[in-house]
Design a protein that fits this description.
Radius of gyration: 22 Å
Shape: globular
Number of domains: 1
Low-confidence stretches: 278-285
Number of helices: 21
Strand content: under 5%
Mean pLDDT: 85
Strand order of the largest sheet: 1-2
Distance between the termini: 60 Å
Order of helices and strands: HHHHHHHHHHHHEEHHHHHHHHH
Helix content: 55-70%
Number of strands: 2
């Protein structure tokens, strides 16, 4: 694609300037580079074979993010975007220290950004533009997943329109935060996983681990996606495309389990971040203590025992996925988060459960698998978060999972509804025992 080539050339030009000692990156230069890339991006869209309305979604979604990016750079004196502030500034300044050799970390967002700064020079503006591009890759990967799963084009259009304009995710896409990169990695991983699921080589299954392991260096909770893959692989036979346990499903699943244990025991510092010090369930209680005015720790108990974890896990998951609730609203940002973030996830969970209960089986297998992956990842994050703002950010890391489920659960086969009573929980025709 032309735009990718242009982006690589821009990085090469900035690296050349850095190499000859030109370290200043004026905003005028960055704006010029953004304009050049944007022109080629629109050319790529115009010549692509995408549906016209899908092109419109990608065009409008990109422009929406460009406006938010420029607002975060130039409009903070008027209004500071939600989630922009202390954390993004802390990441930025840490990345500068790493670029200048004053600090060092194994690998996380500051280390990643610091490495790029060292190559092309320090520019918060351009780095945030790169994160914006990452979010567009995540959106495209989500679309490709729905295409692979043969979701009707009508519902792909609706799903992409919603994903492109989710305000909170769009804002996170342009800030100096981890969410955009992690969301992209999860989406790319899911695309490879779905390619395996729909009949492609097993290399896609194993390849789907790579983006997740990379993302888990940014935040260890992302490893929950691998737990979802493990559970899905344990019960799903790709060849027959049915849910049942066999040697073909159990052996790869056991191998994945051993791989996760090996990585946790030997490379926890690299891949699992905050989880590296968790040696027993009581340790989680200390790692998840809530602080600040937006904490909901008083509602969700602790992990002082296995029984407590079992009792409080459903409450933790609900609070993580659906906060802020009405009684937690403190300002306009919380109202926006409730109306344009929490309600979306509430609706997707509702549609997913309703889809499975009502036995509409057109995409039953895919919905079950995606629900397993989403639940496993949510479980991990739910025990690591007791703060409304943090919950909002972390659940948007999984926006591709929610978006695909949103598209899948809209796409029903009306002819199957008439025979609903004759379909079992896995979407198979019940045998006549008379």
């Amino acid at each position: 694609m032309i735009s990718i080539t242009v982006l690589v050339c821009e990085l090469a030009i900035l690296a050349f300037l850095q190499g000859i000692g030109v370290t200043v990156r004026p905003n005028s230069l960055i704006i010029l580079l953004i304009v050049i890339f944007s022109v080629t991006y629109f050319i790529d869209l115009s010549i692509s074979k995408l549906d016209r309305k899908i092109k419109l979604c990608f065009t409008a979604g990109y422009l929406f993010r460009i406006v938010l990016l420029f607002w975060d750079i130039y409009g903070t004196k008027i209004y500071v975007l939600p989630q922009s502030g202390a954390d993004s500034q802390a990441f930025y300044h840490e990345a500068i220290r790493i670029a200048e050799g004053e600090s060092w970390k194994v690998f996380d967002l500051p280390a990643f950004a610091g490495s790029i700064f060292k190559l092309i020079g320090v520019s918060k503006f351009y780095m945030q533009f790169i994160f914006l591009c990452f979010s567009m890759v995540a959106l495209y990967a989500a679309y490709r997943i729905m295409q692979e799963l043969e979701v009707d084009i009508r519902y792909r259009r609706i799903a992409m329109a919603v994903l492109c304009f989710l305000p909170n995710y769009a804002i996170l896409s342009v800030l100096f935060l981890r969410e955009s990169t992690i969301a992209m990695m999860i989406a790319l991983s899911l695309l490879m996983f779905v390619k395996w699921m729909t009949g492609e080589s097993s290399l896609y299954f194993w390849g789907s681990f790579v983006p997740i392991l990379f993302a888990s260096t940014f935040h260890g909770g992302v490893a929950g996606v691998l737990v979802g893959y493990l559970l899905a692989r344990f019960f799903y036979d790709k060849k027959s495309q049915k849910f049942h346990m066999s040697i073909k499903t159990v052996i790869p699943a056991v191998f994945v389990a051993f791989l996760l244990v090996f990585l946790f025991n030997n490379y926890a510092d690299v891949f699992f971040g905050k989880m590296k010090n968790v040696e027993e369930v009581s340790d989680i209680a200390e790692a998840t203590m809530g602080e600040g005015g937006s904490t909901y720790a008083q509602y969700v108990g602790d992990s002082s025992s296995v029984l407590n974890m079992i009792v409080y896990s459903p409450i933790r998951i609900i609070m993580f996925q659906f906060t802020p609730f009405v009684w937690q609203i403190r300002n306009l940002r919380d109202v926006i988060a409730l109306c344009f973030n929490a309600l979306f996830y509430i609706y997707v969970w509702y549609k997913t459960i309703k889809y499975l209960i009502s036995k509409k089986q057109k995409h039953r297998k895919a919905v079950i698998i995606f629900a397993i992956i989403w639940f496993a990842t949510t479980f991990v994050f739910a025990w690591g978060v007791t703060n409304v703002g943090t919950a909002i950010r972390h659940r948007d890391k999984m926006v591709a999972i929610a978006g695909v489920l949103f598209g899948l659960t809209m796409d029903r086969d009306e002819s199957l509804e008439k025979d609903e009573k004759d379909i079992d929980i896995y979407g198979r025709k019940k045998e006549n025992t008379n």
